[in-house]
Here is the input.
Amino acid sequence: MKIIMIGGIRGSGKTSLIRRLAEHFTGRGLKVGIIVTELGEVEYNESSDKVFVKHAVSDCVSCTFRYDVVHALIDMSNAFVPDIVFVEIAGIAFPGRLEEDIKEHVDVAGLEIMPVIYMVDAVEFMPDTEKIPKFIIDQITSAAAACINRIDLVEGEKIEPIKYVLEEIKPSIPIFCFSLKLNKGDLDDLIQFLS
Ligand SMILES: Nc1nc2c(ncn2[C@@H]2O[C@H](COP(=O)(O)OP(=O)(O)O)[C@@H](O)[C@H]2O)c(=O)[nH]1
Ligand SMILES: [Mg+2]
Here is the structure.
């Protein structure tokens, strides 16, 4: 069971991305679990024999949050052992500690936890490190990769400064740029990276 955490602020496209990835991986015969910790604009409505969606929505107090996610994972793995679990995590969560809690409490064969994939909204992201809150810097620093989403809504020249700042925060971080709406950009490269 591989756990992939998708982080980023509300509206960056985490749910939209997870839905797309779930469609891709179930299409390849894998079973997918989804853990949602935040209610957003886009909701999950595709529970089936291949996709299992579990809500672990709390007030996002960090310890309750971690407890809820760990329990959702344990519950899920009792009912349905997915090949891949996507955990949608909202802004202020502590992915490092969540990873430790999962390793300590979730007992399934072949558990693999991938560091966070951090989603950036091309519209809202301010390419100025001085103005980026520390918790976002921390999330990017601990991320395995960053995605710049919603590129259909900005001028092309807005993307390079965002990439520059992401690389300033975490040198050589893999960056994938796309529009989930138009299904354009580096989505296939991201899928390759996650596979
Ligand atoms: N224009 C545009 N809208 C997008 C794109 N990806 C997601 N959205 C929209 O952005 C909003 C927030 O997406 P959602 O997946 O709920 O973000 P989350 O809060 O991070 O889970 C929704 O209205 C999506 O339909 C994109 O690539 N382009
Ligand atoms: Mg969401």
About this structure: The mean pLDDT is 87. Strands lie at 2-7, 32-36, 51-55, 84-88, 112-121, 145-149, 175-179, 184-185. The domain at 2-190 is CATH 3.40.50.300 (Rossmann fold).
